[in-house]
Design brief:
Layout (H helix, E strand, L loop, with lengths): L1 H15 L4 H9 L5 H8 L6 E3 L22 E8 L2 E8 L1
Antiparallel strand pairs: 1-2, 2-3
Length: 92
Amino acid sequence: MNQKLQAMLDKKAHIMLQGGQEKINKQHAKGKLTARERINLLFDPGTFVEYNMFVKPRATRFGMDKVDAPADGIITGHGLINGRKAFAYAQD
């Protein structure tokens, strides 16, 4: 059971990198925040609950089956904004 938990935690850490540090740096070079950074700024600290983090796209056209795009690059969930419940999604 420990190995399965560690595998899930490793996968989550990979997903949180949103495709790798290079892609994060590319967003920052454009003067933009990543989708995850925007979500973190919008919601009250520690309240955002993400949905479908482990979902993978099923598209096969244009070589999409060979692209690593956790959750299809979309962050969805709910949390509190100024103490009020809200739902949001963000995509890079």
